[in-house]
Amino acid sequence: MKISAVIFDLDGVIVSTDEYHYKAWKSISDQEKIYFDREINERLRGVSRMESLAIILSHSSKSYSEKEKQLLAQRKNDIYCELLNKLSPNDILPGVINLLVSLKARDIKVAIGSSSKNTPFILKQIGLTSNFDAVADGNSIKNSKPDPEVFLLAAEILGVPPEECAVIEDAQAGIDAAKAAEMKAVGIGSAANCLNADMKLSDLTNLDIDQLLEVNEIRS
Ligand code: G6P
Ligand code: MG
Asked: H or E element: which one contains 20?
């Protein structure tokens, strides 16, 4: 099966927002006197805001009401968005622009599939709002990764069958979501260690586009 669309995760694939997420969650954890470190932060990769909060609160002995949880998530997002104001096109990760240009030249559709509700703001900050044929994000889904919903929605907006889509991801939850959607899964960065990724790369600068699109595959 030839690939006719590529769905990009946003955080950690197009742009590195990890440090901003870490700083914002660290500030909330410190205020609440909850232990939080970079290892715990790694587990938040690709996971929705409320599910991230649940992971953080699992390190506290206090129990929080729904209202308190909503307030903590809101406070975290306010800090995070303040940090996102600094984001610019200089923060686009290496290899992204070249890949987008190469895919466009081959008439391959491109989409965003992200759990983040801040996707529109991040795309605006890095100047890529009009570079994608479809955007599926945390604002338009009920179930976040590893559920396949966000990638299936992106494929539906593009009008491409899931099996013709390749997903580029930096999180295990995202690789699992891509496989659950029956899509090809490319793991980069921390997801390069994922056993179920179909292709594994340190970053997008060494991506073999023919291998991504399976143009050399012998079809029966
Ligand atoms: C991405 C990030 C996660 C983050 C999630 C929700 O998937 O990798 O770390 O928790 O988006 O982000 P949001 O911007 O909606 O809080
Ligand atoms: Mg990610």
From this structure: helix 18-31
Testing ligand 1's pocket by substitution, the residue of 44, 115, 144, 167 carrying the most ligand atoms inside 8 A of its CB is: 115
What pLDDT is attached to residue 219?
Answer: 45
Helix (H), strand (E) at residue 168: strand 165-169
Residue 149 CA, chain-centre distance (Å), reads: 13
Give burial (CB, 10 Å; 0-12/13-18/19+) of 2: exposed
Find the 21 Cα to ligand 1 centroid distance in Å. Answer: 8
| CA-nearest residue, atom 13 of ligand 1 | 116
For the chain, give the mean pLDDT. 95
131-183 per-position pLDDT tens digit? 999 999 999 999 999 999 999 999 999 999 999 999 999 999 999 999 999 99
Angle (CA) 167-172-178 rounded to 5° is 30
pTM of the model: 0.95
